[in-house]
Design brief:
The complex is a heterotrimer.
Chain A lengths: L2 H7 L1 H22 L2 E2 L5 E2 L10 H7 L3 H33 L4 H9 L6 H12 L4 H8 L14 H26 L2 H10 L3 H12 L1 H16 L3 H6 L7 H10 L4 H31 L4
Antiparallel strand pairs in A: 1-2
Chain B lengths: L2 H9 L4 H27 L15 H8 L1 H34 L4 H14 L2 H15 L5 H24 L4 H9 L4 H30 L2 H6 L7 H11 L3 H30 L12
Helix pairs in contact in B: 2-12, 3-12, 4-5, 4-7, 4-9, 5-7, 7-9, 8-9, 9-12
Chain C lengths: L5 E12 L2 E12 L3 E5 L6 H9 L6 E6 L2 E2 L10 E4 L11 H11 L4 H14 L15 H13 L5 E5 L7 H18 L2 E6 L2 H7 L2 E6 L2 E6 L1 H6 L4 H6 L4 E7 L3 E4 L4 E3 L11 E6 L5 E2 L6 E13 L3 E9 L2 E8 L15 E7 L4 E4 L1
Helix pairs in contact in C: 2-3, 2-4, 3-4
Classes of the chains: A mainly alpha, B mainly alpha, C alpha+beta.
């Protein structure tokens, strides 16, 4: 076997990812410590090499902080909601779905294949001031223009996030429940009197890895989301994603955008590391 | 079922599966209803979102006559097609490298592969924007493709690797034993066995690219942009019934592609050898 | 044997995986046209040796010669060797015909000849009517035959078989053993057969190489290996043997209990060194000793009835037990058999007791 052959396969994709994933990350960090020149081009600076911490002062001491906390809060709420509803749904399909369980999962996942923006837009159609639901409410005799203000609120945003990322919770948990030995649950039912006890001591621990995957796969994208907030919310519900988007695409100060991104990454880094370590552990145990 | 277990089932209070099935059905409805509303109102003859005045194709005609939107649709297909081809090739190479290469390179390559999957898209998009700015590349469909390929590679790798690691190495060795070179064995034996995984991941990449919004928004230039970016611009101006028609068209396209994935996942089972009863050779 | 008569020769072959030695300095000669088995327990290095001959592993040291030519650097697809894998490794996406034709197609053999030769192979393994079937439609035994046909059709100089019968049930295995032997005789190709089943090796082989922990223990035909094991490992791996720890003396051995027994001590074993006295159970007779036999007294501690034979465990000294096997002939039925707890005399011919290095 030519020893070098397989290692050489790693080179093209490795180079690609290094160039288009790693290098950009490095640039973000460098931009966060930098500034712009008179032409508006970014001047990159590296830590300890003439770096400029003024952007960090701006971000950490000001009006940007609420956006960070809001992103965290919304993402946590979304994750919690997804877990609360996603776990039972995944569970029932995996354990009681029988031969059609794959089909049942597919049906649940199908809406996710619709374009992300269209999904956000659909909620505008439903819940907008001139939307379908308000139309019905008006017909039913409710007063007010509009009868109910759905959009522009934080729960519209969280609802939208929940709608967007729900499948990411269901799929890993479904896989974990399916892989679980159902006789464990039977044994648990004998040992622990109530269903809740069985769940707590047998089912949940056995599916924990799936839960971890689901939580991380929902939390991370939700934290960085901006479309839901932009269209279903209001400036009061701006998430860090909105701020970053505006900075780069609406003519803001680019290095500040870099700093915001770095701070965001640091904030979620704990979750990313946690996921990577549990994934590494899982693949070592052969669960991948 | 014995009398004891039947008794126990009755005693556990509410019939759990029935409640859970109700939850499942409710979620399915919740997930489909908004989409159905968009589809229904795309055929509405009036502008309103509250009154259904009658069936009409007028919004589709508007959509079809709008050159910007049509060009965007074509652009979306172009970008998705190129992304699909390149990402599938790179992702498959990476999968082989991760499964087969001996040595410590594999561990770090594995992490490098997983990172894009869990990095929020906005971060990778920002990075790409900075990269193109630094290098001086003008933003265009090409830069969008580069971005899409970057996040798609990992999806292909994960899917292909899962299948590849289940394949019996001896089959490839048998091909070499019988006269095929390493690459010949790959071509004649391993790739055919991987075909369902490669096809499924290619289709997934196409859908991901076609639907992609965040990376596209950051890396598209002044010219034609893919459909989601166009819709984004339209939405910022205000809700328009035309978007219903555009949306429904996209729904139709992506659902068709998604349903194309379904038979592929089932096909996998038919080309598998029977479960081995022999313990793995030493 | 000159190198020309050897299809395969291994000279000083060493293979390491990390710090572990899989094969330590192996020298092996395999004669042309023979059915050669490599026998040993799991992890003894037999599969690694086979894979090195096939070309899937490269030796770290030493040479592998095929028909006189060194081939350590030659890749498997250029060696005139074919393998039947333990898992059969059939090409699931190809029909039986295409599976068998695979090697011929790689060699760019003419279409008409491919059809002819594949047809002959299908006849040989009795699967002519399933030529268009896919492997997953076949039973385990049929898949095994396809694997064999696929390798044989190329008429290699050597056919390597890696425990090919392991997955088959007992009946089928016995049938296939005879079939393989028959095919080998007919086709005349050298077979190198790896197995951990000593009965299988004894049944089928012209020569057996016994390996343990990466080292060659003994090479010989079935009788050599059974009647004259070279060391205590071979003695207990092949068949059952009584092995008593003892110290060598000039004309015999002294057991730990102090009991001295006469035996032929090989010249290279010095008096005073640790040895094993090896005697096969069937060579032991229970009852009054005849002339010229060595005898020893003991107590029967166990008696196991096994249908055709009865196994007796006899304690001749504290911590020294021997197993004797007696046929259940018409004389030894029911009450006639010696009882547990009774005293018995074990005897054997001196030449059946082997003194082996410990």
């Amino acid at each position: 076997m030519r020893r070098g052959l397989w290692s050489s396969f790693l080179v093209p994709p490795g180079l690609w990812l290094a160039a288009f994933y790693l290098a950009p990350l490095g640039l973000i960090v460098a931009a966060s410590f930098g500034s712009v020149d008179f032409l508006g081009r970014v001047l990159y600076k590296w830590p300890f090499h003439g770096w400029d911490l003024s952007n960090y002062h701006t971000v950490l001491s000001s009006a940007y902080l609420p956006a960070f906390f809001r992103s965290l809060l919304f993402a946590l709420l979304t994750t919690g909601l997804c877990l609360l509803i996603g776990y039972p749904v995944a569970y029932v399909i995996a354990r009681y779905g029988g031969r059609v369980r794959h089909l049942l999962v597919v049906v649940l996942i199908l809406p996710w294949f619709v374009d992300y923006l269209i999904r956000v837009y659909a909620w505008i159609v439903l819940l907008g001031d001139n939307g379908v639901v308000n139309g019905w409410l008006g017909d039913l005799g409710m007063h007010g223009d509009p009868p109910v203000q759905f959009l522009g609120t934080w729960f519209a945003v969280v609802g939208g996030l929940f709608y967007s990322y729900f499948p990411f919770m269901v799929l890993p948990i479904y896989a974990a429940v399916e892989r679980m030995d159902s006789s464990l649950v039977e044994a648990g039912k004998d040992l622990y009197g109530t269903p809740w006890q069985t769940f707590r001591h047998v089912t949940f621990p056995a599916t924990f890895q799936g839960v971890v995957a689901g939580v991380v796969l929902v939390f991370l994208p939700a934290a960085g989301d901006f479309a839901n907030s932009e269209f279903l919310g209001s400036p009061d519900t701006a998430m860090i994603g909105n701020v970053i988007n505006q900075t780069f695409n609406a003519g803001g100060y680019v290095p500040l955008g870099g700093t915001l991104t770095v701070c965001f990454m640091v904030g979620i880094a704990a979750f990313m590391v946690f996921y990577l370590r549990s994934a590494a552990r899982a693949s070592r145990e052969g669960a991948m | 079922m014995s009398a004891v277990t039947a008794e126990r089932k009755r005693r556990t209070g509410f019939d759990r599966p029935r409640f859970l099935w109700a939850l499942y059905t409710a979620m399915c409805l919740y997930l489909f209803v908004p989409i159905l509303v968009v589809v229904i109102y795309s055929f509405n003859s009036s502008k309103s979102l509250q009154v259904f005045s009658g069936l009409s194709f007028r919004w589709y005609r508007t959509f079809w006559n709008d050159p910007d939107i049509k060009n965007s649709l074509v652009a979306s297909f172009e970008v998705a097609a190129v992304t699909m081809v390149v990402a599938t090739i790179l992702g498959t190479l990476l999968a082989f490298g991760l499964v087969r290469a001996r040595g410590r390179l594999g561990g770090s390559a594995n992490i490098l592969m997983l990172l894009p999957l869990i990095t929020p898209e906005i971060v990778t998009a920002v990075g790409l924007l900075l990269l193109f700015g630094l290098v001086g590349t003008p933003l265009s469909l090409k830069t969008i493709m580069l971005g899409h390929i970057t996040f798609s590679i990992s999806y292909v790798t994960v899917i292909v690797r899962a299948r590849l690691s289940l394949l019996n190495r001896e089959v490839e060795e048998a091909a070499m034993d019988l006269g095929a070179t390493e690459l010949g064995a790959l071509r004649l034996v391993t790739l055919p066995a991987l075909y369902p995984a490669i096809a499924a991941s290619a289709l997934l990449v196409f859908v991901l690219s076609f639907d992609d919004f965040v990376t596209s928004v950051f890396t598209s230039g002044a010219g034609t942009s893919p459909l989601p970016v166009r819709i984004y611009s339209l939405l910022r101006v205000g809700v328009s019934p035309e978007i219903n028609a555009v949306g429904t068209t996209m729904i139709a396209i992506t659902l068709a592609l998604a349903l194309g994935l379904l038979p592929l996942t089932l096909w996998r089972r038919n080309t598998e050898p029977p479960a081995p009863t022999v313990p793995a050779p030493e | 044997m000159s190198d020309a008569d050897l299809t395969i020769a291994l000279r000083g072959v060493v293979k390491r995986f990390g710090d572990q030695y899989a094969v330590k300095r192996l020298d092996l000669d395999i004669a042309k046209g023979s059915f050669f088995s490599i026998l040993g327990p799991s992890g003894c290095g037999k599969t690694t040796t086979l894979r090195m001959i096939a070309g899937f592993e490269q030796p770290d040291e030493g040479h592998i010669l095929l028909e006189g030519q060194p081939v350590e650097d030659v890749p498997p697809y250029r060696r005139n060797v074919n393998t039947v894998f333990q898992s059969y490794a059939l090409f699931e996406h190809l029909s039986l015909f295409e599976n068998i034709a695979f090697g011929l197609r790689r060699k760019k053999v003419a279409k008409a000849e491919i059809t002819r030769r594949v047809g002959e192979m299908l006849e040989l393994v009795r699967l002519s009517d399933r030529a268009k079937a896919k492997p997953r439609q076949l039973s385990g035994g049929q898949r095994q035959r396809v694997a064999l046909a696929r390798a044989l059709v190329n008429l290699p100089a050597v056919l390597l078989l890696d425990e090919p019968l392991g997955a088959l049930d007992l009946q089928l295995r016995k049938t296939m053993q005879l079939e393989l032997k028959h095919i080998q005789r007919e086709v005349g190709i050298t077979f190198v057969y790896v197995t951990h089943d000593q009965e299988e090796a004894l049944t089928m082989s012209d020569s057996i190489a016994v390996m343990n922990l990466g080292e060659l223990q003994q090479v010989g035909n079935a009788e050599d290996v059974y009647e004259r094991p070279a060391n205590s490992f071979v003695a207990q791996f092949i068949g059952i043997s009584n092995l008593l720890d003892a110290t060598a003396e000039r004309d015999g051995v002294k057991l730990a209990s102090g009991l001295s027994l006469p035996a032929a001590v090989p010249a290279d074993i010095a008096p005073g060194s640790s040895v094993c006295l090896s005697i096969r159970p069937e060579k032991l007779a229970l009852g009054p000793p005849g002339d010229g036999r060595v005898s020893v007294e003991g107590t029967i501690v166990e008696s196991v009835y096994m249908g055709t034979v009865t196994h007796y465990v006899i304690e001749i000294a504290p911590a020294a037990r021997m197993i004797a096997v007696a046929q259940n002939t018409e004389d030894a039925s029911g009450g006639n058999r010696p009882a547990v707890g009774s005293r018995a005399t074990l005897s054997w011919r001196a030449e059946h007791a082997l003194v082996l290095a410990s």
